[in-house]
Design goal:
Number of strands: 6
Radius of gyration: 11 Å
Shape: globular
CATH topology: SH3 type barrels
Distance between the termini: 24 Å
Number of helices: 1
Order of helices and strands: HEEEEEE
CATH architecture: Roll
Helix content: 10-25%
Oligomer: single chain
Length: 73
């Protein structure tokens, strides 16, 4: 997945859903990341994919994303 595809997939995150990422090429047990109340940070000059839960910012490496689950839990 490239950064543009990932940004498009995450565009619907408005702080009301949980995004669960599963990564490949990452050592166990750190292959999964849950971001509760996830919101996509608007594109900035650095063009990094950033999500926030209102308390932290998570920078996502698009090329390591195996899949994403967007849900209510």
């Amino acid at each position: 997945m490239n950064p543009d595809q990932l940004r498009k997939a995450l565009a619907e995150l408005k702080g009301q859903r949980t995004a669960t990422f599963v990564f490949h090429g990452v050592p166990e047990p750190n292959t999964q990341l849950n971001v509760h109340n996830a919101m996509l940070v608007p594109d900035e000059p650095d063009h990094l994919i950033k999500l926030t839960d209102g308390q932290s910012i998570f920078i996502i490496d698009a090329e390591r994303v195996a899949y994403i689950r967007i849900g209510t839990q």
